[in-house]
Specification:
461 residues, alpha+beta, Cathepsin D, subunit A, domain 1, Rossmann fold, Dna Ligase, domain 1, 4 domains
């Protein structure tokens, strides 16, 4: 029978707890009666069998904003259940039962294991653990007492210290590419363990209990904190599959699979930008060659731009200067069963566009790119030139909104200046660093690494 309210302990909205059997002498818990299940921050979760029973070993960073102190734990598994997070996503978690001490009282609670790096609190105390024992006063904190920094130091002076910084992988195809080399270099300079993973050499094990990623030669890839995807267009499908696997394993991906796939589909991305209230050049799309003439008139006639949906870095982009030439190009592409866009040619742009580099919701650098002599489109891969440019407040807002529309943490946003105002051309989910670092002198690679540190809650000690 449940205890009367007079016998229940009143706690604040956050309290210090102890998990003695797990070797955790002090951990700050968010007390949340709105959550049914309690949860403990855990990573590198690995099930194993002991005496015919399922156990799990895992690692815990018990202190907020501190990835140096690490506790290795193990416990028998009592269940594995689906839990819906505060973001509405369902996740299958291991459940353990362990004694919890709060104030002067100890009792057993069921706790789910999940990576809570992005949540702040390393532990969540739900209503099942509180039932019949606790009442919550949401207006106060640490009603049962604080734990000082000196006490924490005494508690964890013998705890294992994680050497160095984060373990970050660059997932790409060419380790000698400027952008990949710079990211590896910037990560090492900030004290992180950097690993280059060739997309073609990765393969995975799909398993509800133990999802795994392996590398050529049979080596299991584990203990990663983050992945920086630099996926070439020809590897988009497989690269995104690898990112989904890393996400299943609890690894933070700087740009996730869904965002990259969406950005690589030019038609889809343009529709998403329009849905977000952003302006693009007038664009037409059709599947049948019978509609070619109407498609041309739809965008105002020649001159116009014809783009392959799968084109990249300026390849698959053609300027048709007359309606007849436009009709020939479009029909030629369609005879090859190629998907194309037809887009108005913005004459006043004069072969120039602007690349805004967005990191974590902020434009960190911008350049103006000018087409090479005889070319109509600015492209650094085809002899174009890059120079420093000051963008307007409106252009900054547009670039940030475009990255947000694609849900990209890092993005290269290309726009042009027209008589109608700034128009978005493209959103790039793997923007190159060489042109923009050379033109601006800004260490973009270091900013990317700093953004990862912020997202996973790592701070330099």
């Amino acid at each position: 029978m449940a205890s009367s309210s007079s016998s229940k302990v009143i706690v604040g909205n956050q309290e210090w707890c102890r998990l003695t059997d797990l070797g955790v002498p002090a951990i700050k818990a968010r007390v949340d009666s709105g959550a049914k299940t309690s949860a403990l921050h855990a990573f590198n979760i690995k099930p194993f069998t002991r005496d015919g029973e399922l156990w799990v070993n895992f690692e815990v960073h018990p202190l907020q904003k501190n990835r140096k102190v690490l506790i290795r734990c193990e416990a028998p598994v009592v269940d594995r259940r689906s839990v819906r997070s505060s973001t509405g996503e369902s996740e299958k978690r291991f459940v353990i039962r362990t004694p919890l001490t709060l104030g002067g009282t100890t009792w057993e609670v069921e706790v789910t294991l999940t990576n809570r790096d992005s949540m702040g609190y390393r532990m969540l105390l739900g209503r099942e653990a509180m039932s019949g024992r606790l009442l919550v006063d949401p207006d106060v904190s640490f009603r049962l007492g604080e734990v000082s920094n000196q006490e924490l130091h005494q508690h964890y002076d013998k705890a294992e210290l994680v050497q160095g910084g984060l373990r970050i992988a660059v997932l790409a195809s060419n380790p000698e590419l400027y952008s990949n080399e710079r990211l590896m270099e910037a990560g090492r300079e900030r004290g992180h363990d950097m690993l280059f993973l060739n997309i073609r050499h990765c393969y995975m094990k799909l398993d509800a209990e133990r999802p795994e990623m392996h590398y050529r030669g049979g080596k299991a890839i584990s203990d990663l904190d983050a992945v920086i995807p630099r996926i070439r267009p020809s590897m988009t499908h497989y690269g995104c599959s690898l990112l989904r696997q890393f996400r299943t394993m609890g690894v933070y991906c700087l740009n996730d699979d869904a965002s990259i796939a969406r950005s690589r589909d030019k038609l889809y991305s343009l529709q998403a930008l329009l849905d977000s209230g952003l302006n693009i050049p007038i664009t037409g799309f059709a599947n049948s060659p019978l509609d070619t003439q109407d498609l041309i008139s739809m965008v105002g006639g020649a001159p116009l731009i014809v783009k392959l949906l799968e084109g990249t870095q300026g390849r698959g982009v053609v300027l048709a200067e007359t309606n007849k030439a436009a009709e020939s190009v479009i029909n030629a592409f369609k005879s090859l069963n190629a998907n194309i866009l037809v887009q108005e040619f913005v004459k006043e742009a004069k072969g120039k566009d602007i690349r805004c580099f967005v990191i974590d919701g902020r434009v960190v650098a911008s350049i103006e790119r000018e087409a090479a002599p005889g070319e109509f489109r600015a492209n650094l891969h085809q002899g174009g030139r890059a120079s420093l440019v000051k963008v307007t407040a409106q252009e900054r807002r547009i670039a940030v909104r475009a990255a947000k529309a694609m849900n990209l943490q890092v993005a290269g946003i290309d726009l042009i200046r027209s008589s109608k105002g700034p128009l978005l051309l493209e959103v790039n989910s793997s923007p190159g660093l060489e042109g923009i670092e050379s033109a601006t002198g800004i260490d973009i690679a270091a900013m990317v690494i700093t953004a990862i540190e912020k997202k996973v809650g790592w701070k330099r000690q």
